[in-house]
Amino acid sequence: MAVLLHPQLLRLVCEFQDGVFADLLPIPLRSFDEKACVYFMMDAKHHTLAFLANFHDTYAPWLRLHPTERDVGRLLRCRPHLHDVIAAHAAMYGQLYLLQSLQPLQLPFLLKLAASNGQTDAVRLLVSKGCTTCSSESLDGAARNGHLQVLEFLDETFSDTARCTTDAMDLAAMNGHLNVVKFLQTKRREGCTHWAIDMAAANGHLEVVRFLHENGAPATIDAMNRAARNGHLKVVQFLHYHRLEGGTARAMDWAAMNGHLEVVKFLHQNRLEGCTTCAMDDAACFGHLEVVKFLHEHRQEGCTTFAMNYAATNGFLDVVRYLHEHRAEGCTSLAVNQASRNGHKEVVRFLRARYPEPCGGKWTVRIEEICAGVLACSLVAWAIVV
Prior knowledge:
Strand content: under 5%
Oligomer: single chain
CATH architecture of the domain at 193-300: Alpha Horseshoe
Number of strands: 0
Pfam family, one: Ank_2
Shape: elongated
InterPro entries: Ankyrin_rpt, Ankyrin_rpt-contain_sf, SecEffector_AnkRepeat
Order of helices and strands: HHHHHHHHHHHHHHHHHHHHHHHHH
């Protein structure tokens, strides 16, 4: 009994007891058993982020309440297979106290995680613990995510051995990290590929595109095509006035599909690639009436029955009405049949009144069935809300 009443002696006795500490019992184990942790370390390159994010959601609350080296030791005595996972988690989230208490550490792997996630202090700690190599993945990851301070530290610390790849500048450009792109252009020799301008243009990073252009970076037609698709008018204009790659008909097709009227106008007025029937078809499909009007009034490519079919399918009555009044392509049975299935009764009534027999088929539903179906859907929705 005296032993049980003595805190220090009782703690020593309990050290040899099998099982899990009571405060660890509520933590779910299924996703982090020994097999899962071994698999994580074997294939960490492909599963790191998802696995560690899941681990963070599960274990972080406990780790915040138990931040001492002794607490971590208790956890690892019960679940020793978590050692490498906890170390990876600490590097990714910058938990220095964990990195200081865990031994041994897989330093290059942890350095990559810390660098890619901008954990400058963790990077410095790992180097101080004896990390003597810096993989290209560490530099590429830091560049991709815009962590200039980490990139500068690694470049200076491993000046003789550090190597990155063209992914560094390509991905930094894609994500709009101009300061990183400038650093890589000035301090490194790996350069970039056409992907840098192409993806910077696609994401609307005009200043990155300008800098890369001024420093002789290559590009392809994808730059203008993707910039147009995403509505980046200033980038499209810059590429038109300063680059020679140009684009294709996809540029106007994609801009029209996404409703970027100003881009469509610029391409029409300044480029020769034109568009295809996909431009008006897709603009109608997604309800971009002003784009449909512009294409009808200024372009000769026209459209197909796809335009009215899918404008009807998606319930864009104003587009359906405009196409009926200004175009001759008409629609097929798909228009009413799909509009009815989607509950667009005004579109159905409009089409049935003007197209008793569609091109290429017959209506497969009567107006009474359509109205009944719409009413039934409304009643179901009302019942769910109530």
